[in-house]
């Protein structure tokens, strides 16, 4: 009798433990809550489930855009685009008749404008080459440099253009799904079905705009930097092959002074 009473709680306790284990296995969220981690992954999974495949595409576009932006920032930093003093100083030395010092000033610069200007000065110093040939070669090298700076900017433009369209496409698909659920409900219409469907549909539009806005802004900034480099390069290379018209030659100045003195 005593053995029966003592063993009864033990036999009843075992099913309770098995039931708790089964409940934990059947409900992963309960296990996650008990463990205290994984909530971020659960939210991310719910977020992706709400947005559908369009959200996955937009997230992939954002990763590609972020990679391109980081790469362009590193490229512009390595090219020292902010160093805009050496090339004008070299032009000033060249026009003073000191081309060797101008080339030496540009020798250690990584700036593409300075490198192209140095190539132009080297070509001008060569008497065996006509000026047209030197100009064509300098123009070719300058276009190659500008094209390298513009690389992958087209991909940013595409991402900035299609991200809102993808968001709108996801919104249309979400609205279609919401009205399909509404029609299946029949006469027992629950407003939560329609509101939940609209919420999921507008989610893709918000993500598309969130991806497109910074991408468009950064792409325009990169394009402006490249255009400024191209303008500066063209301006300085032209000065290598021309003369400063604002400076009056000394002989002409002296002759003009003599004529004025004779007239007096």
Helices, strands, pairings?
Elements: H1 2-26, H2 28-35, H3 39-51, H4 53-78, H5 86-95, H6 99-106, H7 112-125, H8 131-149, H9 153-185, H10 191-240, H11 250-263
Percent in strands: under 5%
Structural class by SSE content: mainly alpha
| Shape call | rod-shaped
Order of helices and strands: HHHHHHHHHHH
Total of DSSP H or I helical runs spanning 4+ residues: 11
Number of strands: 0
Helix content: over 70%
Overall average residue pLDDT:
76
Model regions low in confidence, pLDDT < 50 over at least 5 residues: 1-37
* Terminus-to-terminus distance: 146 Å
In short:
The protein is an all-alpha fold. The protein has helices at residues 2-26, 28-35, 39-51, 53-78, 86-95, 99-106, 112-125, 131-149, 153-185, 191-240, 250-263.
């Amino acid at each position: 009798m005593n053995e029966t009473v003592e063993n009864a709680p033990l036999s009843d306790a075992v099913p309770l433990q098995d039931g708790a284990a089964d409940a934990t296995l059947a409900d992963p969220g309960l296990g996650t809550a008990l463990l205290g981690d994984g909530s971020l992954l659960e939210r991310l999974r719910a977020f992706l489930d709400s947005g559908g495949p369009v959200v996955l595409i937009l997230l992939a576009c954002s990763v590609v855009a972020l990679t391109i932006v980081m790469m362009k920032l590193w490229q512009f930093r390595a090219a020292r685009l902010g160093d805009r003093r050496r090339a004008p100083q070299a032009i000033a030395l060249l026009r003073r008749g000191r081309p060797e010092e101008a080339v030496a000033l540009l020798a250690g610069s990584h700036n593409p404008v300075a490198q192209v200007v140095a190539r132009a000065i080297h070509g001008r110093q060569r008497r065996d080459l006509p000026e047209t040939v030197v100009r064509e070669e300098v123009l070719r090298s300058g276009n190659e440099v500008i094209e390298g700076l513009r690389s992958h900017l087209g991909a940013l433009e595409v991402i900035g253009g299609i991200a809102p369209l993808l968001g709108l496409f996801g919104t249309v698909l979400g609205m279609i799904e919401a009205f399909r659920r509404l029609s299946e409900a029949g006469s027992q219409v629950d407003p939560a079905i329609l509101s939940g469907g609209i919420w999921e549909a507008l989610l893709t539009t918000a993500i598309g705009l969130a991806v497109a806005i910074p991408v468009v802004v950064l792409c325009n900034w990169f394009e402006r930097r490249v255009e400024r480099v191209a303008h500066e390069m063209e301006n300085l290379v032209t000065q290598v092959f021309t003369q400063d018209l604002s400076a009056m030659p000394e002989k002409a100045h002296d002759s003009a002074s003599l004529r004025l003195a004779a007239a007096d």
